[in-house]
Amino acid sequence: MLSDIEIAQRAEMLHIRDIAAKTGIVEDDLEYYGKYKAKLSSEAIKKAEKNENGKLILVTAINPTPAGEGKTTVTIGLGDAMTRMGKKTFIALREPSLGPVMGVKGGAAGGGYAQIVPMEDINLHFTGDMHAITAANNLLSAMIDNHIQKGNLLNIDVTNIVWKRCLDMNDRALRNVVIGMGGKINGIPRQDSFMITVASEVMAILCLANDVEDLKKRLGDIIVAYKYTGEPVYAKDIKAEGAMAALLKDAIKPNIVQTLEHTPCFVHGGPFANIAHGCNSVQATKLAVKLGDYAITEAGFGADLGAEKFMDIKCRMSGLRPDAVVIVATVKALKYNGGVAKDDLKEENLDALSKGIVNLEKHIENMQRFGTPVVVALNRFATDTDRELKTVIDRCGAYGVKCALCEVFAKGGEGGIELAEYVVDAIANKPATYTPVYDVESTIEDKVKAIVTKIYGGNGVVFSNKAKKEIKKLAELGLDKKPVCIAKTQYSLSDNPALLGRPQDFDVEIKTIRISNGAGFIVAEAGDIMTMPGLPKVPAAENIDINSDGIISGLF
């Protein structure tokens, strides 16, 4: 059996100009990064805006487990299946972060025969977007510290600088650092910290900006610190937004690649869904909708994270509205949610499956709450029994939802035809509405509580004293009327990763509230969430290698 990377390396890719031509993009509107990947020029974006909108499909999943769900794989396979059916289809995905690639996952471009290529390039540096975001973020940090060291004319309180440095790598040693050591020439000593690039506000801004002007304005609106008087200090006060935008001039342009079956795909932006808003760029999604009759995008982790943020943050800001939602699940993952140990998941266990399927049912309820038709993609494994598959299909039917057996990993687009047919049917017969979970004009406390009670199924929210003070400050500054992005564990509907299935009778603890003013949302950090992940005991990087011919191995 071939590995993912071996399948990808044997693929016969088309020149990216030929992929683009399928959607009406001419060669002059492409900025090549080799033969198989390119960025779209600003002119191409303007031309596409004149097109009619296609239908938008959002792919999400149950809460992730060690058994794996395959959300990106299903997204790609669904796109290929719709292409096989003669539908003009465009996929829009996030860019992989080097943190998970080198840490746990080893690759994030789909799997088996449902992949985007060139797989190695996409997973390793790609077109340099992540590095540009890191550079822009850290330029702002350098300018803040330089301003303080050169006289601090803005009267910045050095104990109340909220802007963090970033790095696109899992490096727990950088979570808390002291900078400026070694004498006055090296700056003012202070405590600082790093977050992973994909959790930075610059990443969120890039993904939510409509164009360069919007990008520059949002960058200028970043709150970096507070004065001794309590007033906020903005990036525009430091005069950093112009140079930051210049560093991002290419990164803001969507990247186009292809699937193994030559379906066009945008891969642009990569915010994590557990500590950021978890969706690819607004520009890429809007373009996919304009260039395809069907556009397929995904939101990170379970529907309680990425999909909720897609609906309550990205849709509010962009005007995008999904016409259907696909929820990805597996029998293995549902049994895991029902209490089966990872090593025993291959054995039939209908009791555990019935207990664990409540996780899927809650996500179905949540997506239906938003007013969008739902289809379940049951990602099939060889160890799944007929009785187990029937159990899931029947339970979905009880919710009025069709459940398609999905075999795109093994069969590519051919294995996703049933899913594609169900999705097309759902769009045709169940018009979507759009009902956000909360009123953006309500208080921060009420918005957080709405998400916790309606989406997570919790009883309520416990705010720390620190969070309460931060909420009060934002209200006084008039910055509280924004959407809320909750940062929490991806493994549970609650803020406790050990509570699997559909937890009951729990409260969510909000430890910290902070403003991402340029991005346009408020971040509420729940439980023990970390904005800079660490590497596991055996990092995926240990298995990644390259030979004398330049052939990479180990990326799955």
Radius of gyration: 23 Å
- Mind describing the biggest β-sheet? 12 strands, mixed
Whole-number average pLDDT?
95
Number of strands: 25
Span between termini: 12 Å
Number of H/I helices: 20
The SS-based structural class is alpha/beta
Percent of residues in beta strands: 15-25%
Helix content: 25-40%
How would you classify the quaternary structure? single chain
3D shape:
globular
Poorly predicted regions are none
What does this structure look like?
The structure is a single chain. With 556 residues, the protein is α/β, with parallel strands linked by helices. The strands form six sheets. Strands 1, 2, 3, 4, 5, 6, 14, 15, 16, 17, 18 and 19 form a twelve-stranded mixed beta sheet that branches. A four-stranded mixed beta sheet has the order 20-22-23-21. Helix 14 crosses helix 15 and helix 15 packs parallel to helix 16. It is globular and about 70 Å long. The chain starts with a helix and ends with a strand. The mean pLDDT is 95.
Give the key terms.
single chain; 12-stranded mixed β-sheet; 20% strand; 4-stranded mixed β-sheet; alpha/beta; 20 helices; 556 residues; 36% helix
In short:
The protein is an alpha/beta fold and 556 residues long. It is 36% helix and 20% strand.
Outline the secondary-structure elements:
Layout lengths: L3 H6 L6 H6 L8 E3 L5 E3 L1 H7 L6 E7 L9 H14 L4 E5 L4 H6 L6 E2 L2 E4 L1 H5 L5 H21 L6 E6 L3 E3 L9 E3 L10 E3 L1 E3 L4 H8 L3 H9 L2 E5 L4 E3 H4 L2 H7 L7 E5 L4 E4 L14 H10 L2 E5 L4 H16 L5 E6 L1 H7 L12 H20 L4 E6 L6 H13 L3 E5 L1 H4 L5 H13 L14 H13 L3 E4 L1 H12 L7 E4 L19 E10 L4 E6 L18 E2 L5 E2 L3
